[in-house]
Amino acid sequence: MQQKTVMKLPPDIEFHQDIRLLIYRPKGLINEAEINRVIGVIEGLSCIATAL
Question: Could you tell me the maximum CA-CA distance found in the chain, to the nearest angstrom?
Answer without folding.
Answer: 44
